[in-house]
Amino acid sequence: MNKETHTSVLVLYGYTSNELYIEAIKLNRAHGVGLTSFDKVKIVKKLEDMRYELKDIAMIVQIPIETIRNFVAQRITLNPMGQEQVLKSPLKFLAGGTITMTDEEQDTLSVGSELTLVNQMTQIFSNPKMLRVDSVFLEAIEKIYVLIQEFLIVQKVLNKEGYPIEEELPIKKKEKGKRGRPKSTKNKHK
């Protein structure tokens, strides 16, 4: 941390609460961390509720007016009570559907997609030295193991009933090499 004991403050007088909100967005954009897609959609929805025109909203969040409707539509779904809910990137494939996950539960998602998460887990479990194993970790892994088994069973049933999935499940296991590790499918020598 730096050793500063004071900070400069910008005091704005004569602004309405709506104007202060807009000013805060602009200042954050200029001096803070860039807005995520999730943040931008929340801002768009709030500005719509405040009855701002679309051209003004587009300028404030810096999204072209031609694409702002589509940008928002790709990140909105309904909760079970029929209210709009903004989706974080890993869940945006659910846009237009219904979700039972709260904003707080979505906040626990920090990866870009479920495939990214699975790839990270694969990398970690491929190198056991990267793991810090304790009872809490083992309990979480056991829970994931059960959930994955349930997921694969559901996918198998859905596939038999004609629902499209990309590949037959369960996933084929790789052959094991001399050291008990899966054999690489990549050519080492060309």
Total count of strands: 2
The largest sheet is: 2 strands, antiparallel
Order of helices and strands: HHHHEEHHH
Task: State Rg.
Answer: 24 Å
Residue share in helix: 40-55%
Order of strands across the biggest sheet? Answer: 1-2
Structural class: mainly alpha
Measured between the Cα atoms of the first and last residue, the distance is 51 Å
Q: State the shape.
A: extended
**How much beta, percentage-wise?**
under 5%
Integer count of domains:
2
Mean pLDDT: 78
H/I helix tally:
7
Are there runs of 5+ residues with pLDDT below 50, and where? 169-174, 185-190
Which features characterize this protein?
single chain; 190 residues; mainly alpha; 2 domains; 2 strands; extended; disordered C terminus
Summarize the structure.
With 190 residues, this protein is mainly alpha-helical.
How would you describe this protein?
The protein has seven helices and two strands, in the order H-H-H-H-E-E-H-H-H. The protein has 190 residues and is mostly helical. Strands 1-2 form a two-stranded antiparallel sheet. The N and C termini lie far apart (51 Å).
